[in-house]
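Give me the 3D structure for ATP-dependent DNA helicase.
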Amino acid sequence: MKKSPLPVQNLGAKGKQRKCGREALVKLLRWNFGHPDFRGNQLEAIEAILSGRDCFCLMPTGGGKSMCYQIPALAKTGIVLVISPLIALMENQVMALKEKGIAAEFLSSTQTSQLRNKIHEDLDRGQPSIRLLYVTPELIATSGFMSKLKKIHGRGLLNLIAVDEAHCISSWGHDFRPSYRKLSSLRNQLQDVPILALTATAIPKVQKDVIDSLNLQNPLVLKSSFNRPNIYYEVRYKDLMDDAYADLCDVLKSAGDVCAIVYCLERTTCDDLSTHLSKNGISCAAYHAGLNNKLRSSVLDDWICSKIQVVVATVAFGMGIDRKDVRIVCHFNIPKSMEAFYQESGRAGRDQLPSRSLLYYGVDDRKRMEFILSIAESKKLQSSDSQHGLSKKSTSDFNLMVEYCEGSGCRRKKILESFGEEVSASLCKKSCDACKHPNLVAKYLVELTTAIAVRQRNGFSKILSSSTDAFENENFSEFWNRNDEASGSEEDISDSEDGFEVAKGISRSKFSKKTGINEKIELLQRAEENYYRNKAHDKQVSAHILQSYEQ
Ligand SMILES: Nc1ncnc2c1ncn2[C@@H]1O[C@H](COP(=O)(O)OP(=O)(O)OP(=O)(O)O)[C@@H](O)[C@H]1O
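Predicted structure for ATP-dependent DNA helicase (551 residues):
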């Protein structure tokens, strides 16, 4: 049942602001959201914002960042503007808030003009009923919307600008969106409105970049640990097992009928693996950008309402997925960076209950990812726009991921150290395989070294043939551009021209539909020669590679 919101707390008779004390804020939290108390740095962030101060807030996935702007929206008359990278994300949040009786809206080109006009009319009123307004960065950049914001601000009604997923502004971050760059002008245009930057994934370089780019003034910087104590981290080695599909099937079956996400690099793997799991009695479906919108949303709906328990997906299944009881997040292929891994594995256990991150590591997968990243890298070097247009992520970021899988020692420590955190030896408490079963993991790593040596002698035959397919049939589309399921409107970040999108362009042009098979083989051989230029390939290996193209 919808509740009516608690009366606004802060305005005295003459519009003078009264301090909204801790007790009143806790009351708002309990009444509107049913949580007994604030968590982590939530209260500090809220108090800073309500005092008019800029704030940079780093909280782990599932930490409760949205409360940091939702409570201020309820504590003051006026509007909180929330800038969010995805329409789906905005839709989810607005729906959840409306269910709680909180007046929230989003503006996007996916709405009817009638609905948009209604929202604009409300914003023009002396006392708008909307408390939270969600928009994309593209809308902010339009002069029409900016002048509307200025008018609202001029009437003293713009209380806060919250920039969600703020790391998207930094070209050092893993999710760089060129459209976020446009937010740099906010501080000048709307001078005394506090800005709150929120992110779950910011290495120190990105944190500084976010603060500088948004031009935050003397911000309160709140950082929580990235540690997710309720997630158990584990790596399994594909090269040491007969059948990774069967292994995953056993894992899911022995976990019971739990909710899980399995991430794969390629769409075909999603389809194959999902079919295999289904045949073995696991309630699951594939999800990737190759499926039509209707099918994708029905998979999503079925998963959200527990009709199916396991989704086998590419990274298109990403931001904005709000199911809290995900017990297992499995990476069936190695992710491209520690940041991506942290973000994706962090979708497990958002209810804080014990959960699992399971990564299947394979040497073929590693080589394939290195090959893909090397193409993106070489394009970046060629680009004259390398300062602003492209992500600055590089293959070196991937090495951290390889070290996570191939190196010895605590997995949790490796994750946290990659984000610049100092980690005490006792932090993990045996909640990763390397700490819980050190001898077994050490044995696996020795066996893996042997397996790699054997594979190097025999050549990594499958890698390039798979890459040909991928470039040709867009099997990797989501890898290059994580959000290609979005609507493609001018307000949508989905047509962002980030580094991978540009690299996709080269790959496509390299292997356009007109490219004949011989040319493809030649191009791939040349790429392969470059790639393995320090490695000796005897005739037998070359023949083996050619043979694999023909299959
Ligand atoms: N003070 C609190 N007490 C208990 N639960 C809370 C509290 N604050 C937030 N939550 C709950 O925690 C969950 C995660 O919150 P939220 O979606 O805001 O996290 P987030 O930091 O934005 O996560 P992500 O980065 O994964 O999107 C939600 O179910 C929310 O209701």
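The CA atoms of residues 251 and 384 lie 48 Å apart. Let me know if you want a second pass.
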